[in-house]
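[recover] target loaded
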């Protein structure tokens, strides 16, 4: 089994792991590769603890992962932003991601800084499950973007409301007069969309949610559609100016624009340790029903 851990390059500190085998006498000997990058110099002690735990379990650190080097698992050390960066770095490689939270909430992560030994034990004994998460593909007039959480349009400061015409599968839905508009996956439904009244979508629901940002009228509410839908966002105003965001990537677009949003032709696998799932996450991290 090949395992690779990775997190973003915020601290320009990176290291990898190579596992030579759980049992030195095993005829074949598993190959594990793990690379990790810490989010901040403040958290370097945590990644060092992880490094030591991996090495103590027979895992040897190696440096520099270059896709598409074959690995089995990517470990993200940081918070949700770190995990999102890792997902974008992996792209279509299809490697499952396991997040260790060294940030704040860490909703997408499956372990905390105090769970390192548990994490190592679960990896060695394969006591974990894998959840498939859909990815959005975003096409504009001049670029293609991808998002695990959401895509959004938002008016820039001091600019007027956006009047965004929304079509789903070539059927007109409405023109949304609002500060902006969010299209979120089930993964992103607990993020930006939730803060504007959007519903929580379970990972396997096969759906997306279109959520207005500070809508001008009370009749514009979040709308849940199939994740097989093709969503078209249009703004015809010649002086329109807004930001387009896809997860942590943000750019400015102006004038009449068309943004096409659909499910990408690949997905992402998120690892949950034993006895963890989406519903334990919303109870324990969002205090759902408490």
């Amino acid at each position: 089994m090949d395992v690779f851990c990775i997190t973003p390059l915020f601290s320009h500190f990176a290291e990898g792991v190579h596992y030579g085998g759980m049992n030195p006498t095993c005829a074949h000997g598993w190959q594990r590769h793990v690379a990790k990058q810490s989010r901040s110099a403040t958290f370097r002690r945590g990644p060092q603890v992880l490094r030591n735990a991996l090495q103590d379990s027979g895992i040897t650190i190696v440096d520099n992962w270059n896709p598409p080097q074959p690995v089995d698992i990517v470990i993200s050390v940081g918070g949700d932003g770190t995990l999102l960066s890792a997902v974008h770095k992996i792209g279509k490689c299809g490697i499952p991601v396991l997040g260790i939270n060294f940030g704040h909430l860490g909703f997408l992560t499956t372990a905390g800084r105090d769970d390192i030994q548990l994490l190592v034990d679960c990896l060695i004994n394969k006591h974990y499950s894998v959840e498939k998460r859909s990815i959005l593909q975003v096409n504009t007039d001049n670029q293609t973007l991808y998002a695990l959480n959401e895509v959004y349009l938002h008016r820039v400061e001091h600019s007027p409301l956006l009047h965004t015409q929304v079509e789903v599968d070539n059927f007109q839905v409405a023109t949304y007069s609002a500060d902006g508009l969010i299209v979120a996956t089930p993964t992103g439904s607990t993020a930006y969309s939730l803060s504007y009244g959007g519903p929580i979508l379970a990972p396997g629901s096969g759906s997306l949610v279109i959520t207005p940002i500070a809508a001008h009228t009370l009749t514009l509410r979040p709308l849940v559609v199939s994740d097989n839908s093709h969503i078209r966002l249009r703004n015809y105003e010649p002086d329109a100016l807004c930001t387009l965001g896809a997860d942590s990537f943000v750019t400015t677009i102006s004038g009449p624009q068309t943004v096409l949003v659909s499910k990408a032709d690949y997905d992402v696998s998120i690892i949950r340790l034993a006895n963890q799932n989406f519903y334990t996450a919303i109870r324990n991290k969002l205090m759902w029903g408490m």
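[recover] notes: The two ends are 40 Å apart (CA to CA).
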